[in-house]
Amino acid sequence: MALDQSDRLDDDALIVLFANGDSAAAEALTLRLSPQALSFARRLLGDLAEAEDVVQDAMLRLWRVAPDWRPGEAKPATWLYRVVNNLCIDRLRKRQRVNVGLDDMAEPADPAPSVEARLIQTDRMAALDAALAALPERQRQAVILRHIEGQSNPEIALIMDISVEAVESLTARGKRALAKLLASQKEELSS
Amino acid sequence: MTKKLNMTPEMDAELDALFAQARDEAPVPSPDLLARLAQDAAQTQASFGRVVEAPLAPRMSWWAQLLDDIGGLPAMGGLVASACVGIYLGFVNPDFATGLSSTETEVTAEAAGVMSHALLGDLSWIEEG
């Protein structure tokens, strides 16, 4: 199969082709799936090198499962997000960081209404990463998947193995907590 | 007592702008990562359908095959021993085998006679009765 022909094929078909020995299918799947897996892992872990290792591990699992892949059962992208999510959770827990979840934290007394406009782009991303890292694990996963990776709630439910209602609750609470954290950062900067 | 934050439209818009920027600045897989992924894919693909061939049995000569078929050296030893005993009985001491045969025949004839008399007696009793 030529690489330009792969655009007309869905991920399921590419996995079947890969399992049948088509090397171009591997390249097409890599170019299609690895960027979003890397983006998700990078946001969850906050470390690019570690995220690359996670993506390599997750893609290797996809290659190995290809001969037993059942088209139509699970979307390959969703399957990959789920594997990346689990690998990242394992790594985060191994770090043994003592994170105090926002659920247990006192809410800021008087949050500011908006983030300071004078923050430059880099600082804004650093602030977002810091705020995301301070979120409880499940809220962080749900917020990243929903608002940065652009996944739908049913897909997030499959990735995180929870109900759609739980996803809605996590994303709403996560977004609210994120706003509080960013407002606190802005207050610290302005004081 | 903590105060619950109400999300204002401005805060919502600000967060959405941050998320959009995060999407735009998503990391792109480096050439090194793509090479590692391609190598893994090629190695995994090469292992698909690889059949592990059983080692071929070494070729055997006809006599070795025959010996193997009858049970190997232990069976051959028993066969040779039986043949030697047969030769000994047949050529060195034939009277032993003949005498044994006649004695057995007499015993068998006597037993048959007893049976015959008994049967005949019974039959003659029945006929008389």
Walk me through the structure.
The complex is a heterodimer of chains A (191) and B (129). Chain A starts with 10 loop residues before the first helix and ends with a helix. Chain A has 8 helices and no strands. Chain A is mainly alpha-helical. Chain B is rod-shaped, with a radius of gyration of 49 Å. Chain B contains 5 helices and no strands. Chain B is 75% helix and 0% strand. Chain B has helices spanning 9-24, 31-47, 62-69, 72-92, 94-128. Chain B has 129 residues and is mainly α. The chains are: A mainly alpha (191), B mainly alpha (129). The interface between A and B is large, with 49 and 34 residues.
Mean pLDDT of chain A: 85
Uncertain residue ranges of chain A: 100-115
Q: Roughly what percent helix of chain B?
A: over 70%
Q: Name the largest protein-protein interface in this structure.
A: A-B, 49 and 34 residues
Q: Which outline of chain B best applies?
A: rod-shaped
The average pLDDT score of chain B comes to 72
Radius of gyration of chain B: 49 Å
Number of strands of chain A: 0
Structural class of chain B: mainly alpha
Oligomer: heterodimer
- Secondary-structure element series of chain A: HHHHHHHH
